[in-house]
Automatic annotation (TrEMBL), chain A:
Protein's name in the database: PH domain-containing protein
InterPro entries in the cross-refs: YdbS-like_PH
Lineage: Bacteria, Bacillati, Actinomycetota, Actinomycetes, Micrococcales
Domain YdbS-like PH: from-to ranges: 82-159
Source organism: Arthrobacter hankyongi
Keyword Transmembrane attached: yes
UniProt keyword annotations, A-Z: Membrane, Transmembrane, Transmembrane helix
Coiled-coil features, chain-numbered ranges: none
Listed transmembrane segments: 25-51, 57-76
Highest taxon, organism lineage: Bacteria
Pfam families: bPH_2
Length: 170, 520
């Protein structure tokens, strides 16, 4: 992975599981299918003569636009997933994400209020889990999706233990 | 600036103490004042009085006999009125009877609810802020509501409405004494007096009115009037000016909202923290204990610049963002001069962490360019912020990070290092092209959103690392939650003494404060 300009120096990022790309692609495919089907309704109605007044070009344009945007977003999913990274340091956890709008965040262990581990049906099928850290600030959006279950459990225990050791109130 | 006289005890001296200061024994519970439900529910009673009174009143003026039983209607009306009143008053009395509270050594407990009982207990040392609120009607009865906030940004943890004002003040003193970790003399537990306080500043009424007139509301009003005038001229019907009516109501409400909350604003310092008092009809006294301020912002709308006025807002966990009166409660100073701002900053940030705080914070308020330790955006940032690129920047003192931004709407955000929750670097596609990055400090819910805008990428990365290290170091030596508890080594007690020397009498003031601390 090429080093991005805002990444702190000397950090070896841990990446999320490559299987998470598949999970997201499945979700993306389902959403695209439903979206395209809904936006194709005027086209079907126009072609079958039920709603002839509807402009034909618009009827074609709607699903075509949707499909184009969806394909673009689908093409980004592998890169987006590979851009997610985390690194455990002595005092804090680093999390990075994003390709166009990049973000690198540092969450001190002592600031964590609680840690969530969530598993959806699709993630469970692939043996993955999501972990989310909460501090007293709602702006701390520290989510790590698509971790292997064992790694998620290890990280949760590790974060809780370190949070205990460095507890700092508010 | 003269030395403020220490206020004499505000109605809750030790002479009036009645045992409330001692921790309550396990079985002892108190009730709020019996009038409370009526003070809270007076709107319902007023509505009923209006609803039934109107008929009677109209009949009276039509010359009808007042108590005539015409076709039996009065009987039914009276019966309905009676039933509604009995239900309402019965509900009030029951809710009063079932609401009980207790202060123990470590907790405040409140039981409430008639059918659905609620038992709530909050740890005293988790207190983030205490408010004493007096709506107009409560003021008439000399009652007050006590609000106890913990860090959950939602509703108040404990609301005791209403207590006699003196009791509320005594309770506040007791809670703060317990929360501060003062060891009471077991023989005479009621001798923990309310922490002595010194008034630091008072905002004159004329300035409040002037600030309201120079606020954004006025700009909006002028624009709206101009737009309506143009519209009326184009349409050639003066009646088009009528569209202004809702705007006028809106701006009047805006002026009133500012004036009624900023009126008679006073700030004071006591060993228990910062005291803010304000209000025209509804008065509020807020106490923010030391170390509870998460972030402060000082801002200046463009029209205030001529007068040199500033507004200060604060993030305190427990005040929240929405909710009733959040805008007023998070206001640390509705309108003040530069000297007022420096004084308040000295209260919330007792140790500025720099030998020349006036220069550093002054540059943060109104300066631009790199002076007084500020690092600003590089010149290429002008493509993104053509006006404010010289002002956008940061300075780090030993205890806090200052984030400066805005050329027209000047703003300075101050975050103590030990209050930083997490830090994030952001970079969008345009900023990456220009080699710029934003740094955001995450703090608790509130009006202050500290961010350092458009730094050079390398400088931003450096600040990110440094700030993480500074925050970690500051956390290790942070003031304990029980702020007056004696710790071995450095006593944290002097932390509440203002350290920015604003006036010559500062030394005397510090001495005074240290004497005050001696009560532990």
């Amino acid at each position: 992975m090429p080093k991005e300009p805002i990444d702190p120096a000397g950090i070896a990022w841990s990446r999320v599981s490559p299987k998470y790309i598949t999970v997201r692609l499945i979700g993306w495919a389902a959403a695209t299918l439903v979206g395209t089907a809904v936006l194709s309704v005027p086209l079907v109605l126009t072609l079958s003569g039920i709603w002839p007044a509807f402009p034909l070009w618009l009827a074609w344009l709607l699903p075509a636009l949707e499909l184009a945007v969806a394909l673009w977003r689908g093409a980004l999913i592998p890169r987006q997933t590979r851009a997610i990274g985390y690194a455990e340091r002595d005092d804090d956890l680093l999390i990075r994400g994003g390709i166009f709008f990049q973000r690198v965040m540092v969450v001190p262990y002592g600031r964590m209020q609680y840690v969530d581990v969530a598993v959806g049906p699709l993630e469970r099928a692939f043996g993955l889990a999501s972990i989310k850290l909460h501090t007293a600030s709602p702006a701390t959006i520290a989510a790590l999706p698509g971790l292997p279950e064992a790694e998620a459990a290890r990280l949760r225990e590790q974060l809780s233990a370190r949070g205990q050791a460095r507890l700092a109130g508010l | 600036m003269s030395i403020p006289e220490p206020l004499s005890g505000t109605g809750a001296g030790p002479d009036g103490a009645s045992g409330t200061l001692a921790p309550d024994p396990a079985g002892t519970w108190h009730r709020v004042h019996p009038v409370s439900p009526f003070v809270r529910g007076w709107i319902a009673l007023a509505a009923i009085a209006y609803f039934f009174g109107r008929d009677w009143f109209e009949g009276f003026f039509r010359g009808e006999p007042v108590w005539a039983v015409a076709d039996g209607r009065l009987g039914w009306t009276a019966a309905a009125l009676g039933v509604v009143l009995v239900l309402l008053v019965g509900g009030y009395v029951l809710s009063w009877w079932f609401t009980r509270y207790q202060i123990t050594g470590d907790h405040v407990r409140v039981n409430s609810g008639i059918l659905f009982r609620q038992h709530r207990q909050a740890r005293l040392d988790r207190v983030q802020a205490i408010d004493i609120v007096q709506p107009l009607l409560a003021r008439i009865f000399a009652l007050a509501e006590l609000k106890f906030e913990v860090a959950d940004a939602g509703e108040s943890a404990v609301r005791l409405a209403y207590l006699p004002l003196a009791d509320a003040q005594r309770l506040r003193a007791a809670i703060l004494a317990h929360a501060a970790g003062i060891r009471l003399d077991p023989a005479k537990p009621e001798e923990a007096p309310e922490a002595p306080e010194q008034q630091v500043l008072a905002v004159p009424g004329g300035r409040v009115a002037g600030a309201a007139l120079l606020s954004g509301t006025t700009v909006f009003l002028v624009l709206a009037v101009a737009a309506a005038a143009v519209l009326a001229w184009l349409a050639d019907t003066p009646a088009a000016m009528a569209v202004l009516l809702p705007t006028l109501f809106g701006t009047a409400a805006g002026y009133w909202g500012f004036f009624s909350t900023a009126y008679n604003f006073r700030a004071a310092i006591s060993p228990d923290g910062i005291r803010l008092r304000y209000g025209l009809l509804e008065t509020r006294a807020q106490t923010v204990p030391p170390g509870r301020v998460q972030a402060v912002s000082v801002s200046q709308p463009p029209l205030w610049r001529a007068k040199g006025w500033y507004r200060m807002r604060v993030n305190v966990a427990g005040y929240g963002a929405g909710g009733e009166n959040a805008a007023a409660r998070t206001t640390l100073l509705p309108v003040g001069t530069r000297q007022d701002v420096m004084q308040i900053l000295a209260l919330v940030l007792p140790d500025p962490g720099t030998p020349d705080p006036l220069a550093v914070f002054g540059a943060g308020l109104a300066g631009s360019g790199s002076g007084a330790g500020f690092r600003t955006s590089p010149r290429r940032a002008r493509w993104l912020s053509p006006l404010s690129f010289r002002r956008n920047g940061y300075a780090a003192t030993g205890t806090a990070l200052l984030a400066r931004s805005g050329a027209l709407w000047r703003e300075l955000a101050v975050v103590p290092h030990e209050r930083t929750q997490s830090i994030a670097l952001h970079q969008g596609p345009l900023a990456r092209r220009l080699g710029l990055a934003d740094l955001r400090l995450h703090t608790t819910v509130g009006p202050v959103d500290p961010r350092v805008r458009q730094l050079d990428t390398a400088a931003a990365r450096l600040l990110f690392d440094e700030q993480a290290a500074r925050a970690a170091a500051a956390r290790r030596i942070a003031v304990p939650e029980r702020w007056l508890e004696q710790r071995p080594g450095s006593g944290p007690a002097t932390d509440t003494g203002p350290a920015i020397a604003v006036n010559d009498a500062q030394d005397e003031k510090d001495e005074q404060l240290e004497q005050d601390h001696g009560r532990g």
